[in-house]
Design goal:
The chain is an alpha/beta fold. The protein contains six helices and seven strands. The protein has one domain: Alpha/Beta hydrolase fold, catalytic domain (Rossmann fold).
Length: 219
């Protein structure tokens, strides 16, 4: 695991730990922009890369990443590192972009049960591979009791609005929609929305989610 990257006020009442998607590091332009928006919204943001991405960035193999299940231990290690830096009264959310959010979702229930985290945030959850709508990655999302927020593009090829509304996700999961957004929340010209607007709205939804947890469960 690489060093933890910090953005925003690390003394904030809520910290959010994010991992990137399968194809880009947490220093990508998209992740930098989202981290900045979340910091502007008053959250302390921490980010990390999985070891396969670190090796890739160092000039190693560009083979596909390991299966998400094999990365859960690395995510749990990142949580332990961040919690070791947290002060009294702070709460931790975990999540990430695409595959990073999926790995976080696989770790979330046990971490929540252990009171290590307060909630889960997924930015563009890969409900299924593109063009394979029957290869669902939702089994664990049907029984999740950890509070969760998924921000999803309405026309995401990994699971758009017309599909996700019928998945029967657990009541603990809230879904917010990026208007006309694709997997990166980009909207088409003439749709009435933009990438910038969708990313800003996502940051606002995450802040509102964090505030709701704070009201429901004091630190």
């Amino acid at each position: 695991m690489a060093d933890i990257l910090s953005t925003g006020n690390q003394s904030s009442k809520t910290l959010i730990l994010l991992a990137a998607g399968a194809g880009a590091p947490v220093t990508s332009a998209w992740m930098e922009r989202m981290a900045g928006l979340l910091a502007d919204a008053g959250l302390g943001v921490v980010r990390f890369d999985f070891s396969y991405m670190i090796a890739r960035e160092d000039g190693g193999s560009r083979r596909p990443p390991p299966k998400a299940e094999k990365l859960v231990g690395e995510y749990e290690a990142a949580v332990a590192t961040v919690r070791g830096r947290m002060g009294k009264g702070q709460r931790l959310l975990i999540g990430g972009k695409s595959m990073g959010g999926r790995v976080a979702s696989l770790a979330a229930q046990s971490l929540f049960d252990a009171k290590a985290i307060a909630g889960l945030v997924c930015l563009g959850y890969p409900f299924h591979p593109p063009d394979k709508p029957d290869a669902l990655r939702t089994a664990h999302l049907k029984t999740l009791t950890c509070p969760a927020l998924i921000v999803q593009g309405e026309r995401d090829p990994f699971g758009g609005r017309s599909e996700v509304d019928g998945y029967g996700l657990a009541p603990a999961i809230e879904v917010r929609w990026a208007v006309d957004g694709d997997h990166d929340f980009r909207a088409r010209r003439g749709s009435g929305s933009t990438l910038a607007a969708n990313m800003q709205a996502a940051a606002g939804s995450i802040r509102a989610f964090a505030d709701g947890l704070a009201r429901a469960v004091p630190p």
